[in-house]
């Protein structure tokens, strides 16, 4: 916000509320609205720096990566079972877990989220959030 914008807001307030006095808003050098905005902005920045620590120079952040094992031998069978069989919830979960290494390797090679969702349409189902 600039000083001109705060002065425009003050004028708009005076127009909409004729009983208000411009002197009330212009008590300081820049005006109450501008000062209030600056104080809130600086307070927000201070709060955010307290919450989010600054990274240490030269310190590399280690990311958690789980090693993906070799894909299962019967992964294609599991996938066809998932697609074409009518499974109960428990059966679906056990077959889903049985092809997890194959699925994770395939997801790693795909470049976009759309490609992942096309390859594994089960994530789009209403219960897809459980599969992640």
How is this fold's topology laid out?
Layout: H1 3-16, H2 22-25, H3 32-51, H4 75-84, H5 89-98, H6 100-109, H7 113-119
InterPro entries: DUF4769 (IPR031934)
Pfam families: DUF4769 (PF15992)
β-sheet strand percentage: under 5%
Distance between the termini: 43 Å
Q: Please outline the major beta sheet.
A: none
Number of helices: 7
N-to-C order of helices and strands:
HHHHHHH
| Oligomeric nature of the chains | single chain
Could you report the average pLDDT, rounded to the nearest whole number? 78
Shape: elongated
Instruction: Report the helical percentage.
Output: 55-70%
* Poorly predicted segments: none
Q: How many individual domains?
A: 2
State the secondary-structure class. Answer: mainly alpha
Q: Please give the number of β-strands.
A: 0
Radius of gyration: 29 Å
InterPro entries: DUF4769
Pfam family, one: DUF4769
Q: Main traits of this protein?
A:
132 residues; mainly alpha; 2 domains; DUF4769
Task: Walk me through the structure.
By secondary structure, this protein is mostly helical. It has two domains: 3-51, no CATH class; 75-131, no CATH class. The protein is 57% helix and 0% strand. The chain has seven helices and no strands. Helix 4 (75-84) runs antiparallel to helix 5. It is elongated and about 80 Å long. InterPro entries: DUF4769.
